Amino acid sequence: MDKMNFKKAFTLAETLLTIMIIGILVALMLRAINRINPDKDKVLFIKAYHATEAAIGNIINDPTKYDPTYLTDDEIDSAESEGTELNLDFRFKPYPDATASITNANGEQQEIKNISQSQAVCYFLADQLNTVGAVKCTSNGTEGIDGANFRLSNGVCFYNWSGVKSNGSVDGVIDPTCTSASEGYVVRVFYDGKVTVPETATGHSNQSKAYGWLQNQTDVK
Fold first, then answer.
1. Would 201 be classed as within a structural domain?
2. pLDDT-based confidence at residue 4 (cuts at 50, 70, 90)
3. Which residues constitute the domain of residue 141?
4. CA dihedral angle for residue 191, residue 193, residue 198, residue 204, rounded to 10 degrees
5. Which long-range contacts link 215-221 to residues 24+ away (Cβ below 8 Å)?
6. How far apart are CA 94 and CA 73, in angstroms?
7. 82 lies in a domain?
8. CB 220 within 8 Å of CB 198
9. Has residue 188 been placed in a domain?
10. Fewest CB within 10 angstroms: 41, 160, 216, 219, which?
11. In a domain? residue 220
């Protein structure tokens, strides 16, 4: 009698094991794909942040813009009591002849001088970064392209950079989508030129995302 041929089926345990292995492989593949194609907004923000960080360092260390002499608190108090104007850092107005080259609303290149303390960071940043279109630093992000102070050639918008506080700090906004100030992420500049991304910011519910990006920049090329 001929022997009957039997087809052996997978057991339930073998099937579950196979599904689990496939799931692990898919997860590893997705992780690898994400590393190859990182979040576009993350890449744009990180690059804009580091460009801003470098530009701020150049600005505050430029002796043609701010007095490079760092005075003591006693000297500052004495100068203030005597009514002497100090050009020291972002707390003070830059030199009257400090110049920023920007594009105006008519698309013309314009040299800006006698810049106010409040507008200085905005104008000097726009001068150093690769901007397109008009630069508007005359108010807190209510003018210019799509309401922004200025826009980079890669489409990233800078909002609220005109508005340096009396203590020399400014909470400017970088929006990689160029949608609005509220959709962007706050970047904090201190009077001495230090630049950070705060973990939280009022009116910016996604601020923690930018903070996390700064903690893990391995995917940014």
1. yes
2. low
3. 40-215
4. 80
5. 217/46, 219/34, 219/35, 219/38, 219/39, 219/42, 219/43, 220/38, 220/42, 220/43, 220/46, 220/47, 221/38, 221/43
6. 19
7. yes
8. no
9. yes
10. 216
11. no
Alpha-carbon distances, residue 123 vs 13, 64, 139, 168 (angstroms): 67, 14, 11, 15
- What's the predicted TM-score (pTM) here? 0.76
Tell me the backbone φ, ψ of residue 150, rounded to 5 degrees.
-165, 165
Torsional class of 9: left (φ above 0), alpha (ψ -120 to 50), beta (otherwise): beta
What is the Cα–Cα distance from 47 to 15, expressed in whole angstroms?
Answer: 47
Provide the token pair at 213.
Answer: 């990006």
Question: Cα dihedral sign for 63, 116, 123, 165?
Answer: positive
Q: pLDDT digit string (tens) for 72-91?
A: 778 777 877 887 666 678 98
Comparing CA positions, the residue from 124, 122, 144, 125 lying closest to residue 133 is: 144
Q: Answer yes or no: are the C-beta atoms of 167 and 91 closer than 8 Å.
A: yes
Integer Cα distance of 29 and 34 in angstroms: 9
The helix/strand/coil state of 58 is helix
Q: What was the pLDDT predicted at 139?
A: 62
Tokens of 132: 């397109």
